[in-house]
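so my prof wants the structure for this chain in the tokens format not the other one, which i didnt know existed until like an hour ago. anyway here's the sequence
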Amino acid sequence: MRAVVCLVVAALWAILCPATVFPAMAQPADTAAFWNNVQARCDATAAKPAGETGRRIAAAALDEFHRFDGHRIDADGRLIGFGQTEAEQSLRPTAQLQSKLGGLAWWRVMQYWQALFGKDAPEKLEVLGFGDAVAASDPDREAPLIRTTTAKLLRAAENEADPETREVLREAAWRLAIIDTPWSAAFVSYVLRKAGATDETFRFSNAHWGYIYDAFATSKAEVESKDDAHLYRACPLEATIPRPGDIVCRQRARQLENASEPEVRRRIIAELAGGPLGYTVRATHCEIVAFVDAPSRKLYTIGGNVEQAVTARKLNLRADLKFSASQGRCEAAGHWTLPNAQEKSGAQMPRGNCSLNDRNWFVLLQVRTEKDAR
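here's what i got, hopefully its the right format
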């Protein structure tokens, strides 16, 4: 009976004083008391200005966006500025006879992969094709998917005697790989490494789910009063004020399309005990918080491979500066009436496609203080 009373008191205390009290006793994962404890830590950190680490991460992301010269998405989820895309040689290729390599979109993406995998990057990047597609003329012919690696294409290019043709073939191999291999997590890894993160504090990876699960494990370790060196903790998204350097993530799993934020959180916490082989929230995407405009209640994130570019996205915040569930504005049901070639009547665009911001965002990864990350 005494234990039950203590748990109730601890839970009420966490609710009444969330920013200052961290119950010392371990709480069972995925209970109200557990998440109150997590939220208390998130709120205490969010109440402080972004630290040096967070500012470095935000600055690195913002710098890379400007170097890439990517897209801009407004708060209604509309693409208002179209920049370079992943495999382009130049925004104005006919206007210049030479170009600085840093201004080439594909060259910048190549740097992300090389920062992640080093000299092994060409072996990691897959290039896709379809059997005999170039020689075929029948559009209804089914062609089998074929695969190779960038490394094999680069080795094949070495057989070309003409040095200029050889270089074009090398570049073509990289540009194909960049098109065919998702690179959004490689971008985040690049930015975090550039900002000074280490292998001990962040999981550099070509998939977002690894560091997402690490952040949830960190939140669990904090509740259990265990040491943890990771840079990020997982915070309930719509209940936490974001700061520069934080990361917001969405899930794209088909089986979780209609799942709420708490449901996805519960799934991840439950799966931590089973190890990586049991992790199911793998189809994800994350973007770095680059700037918080408090007076306008707007949040700017920078993400890689967003519409095939490094893209700046403007998102809505509520009056309390927390993440807003509404991230797009779709018009009336008849706003899209362009006829489909196979249909006589106009086909309605699904609501989920109306706004580029209206996605299944479900967690905020918060930069911990140096005192917390020990």
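also thought this was worth mentioning. The radius of gyration is 23 Å.
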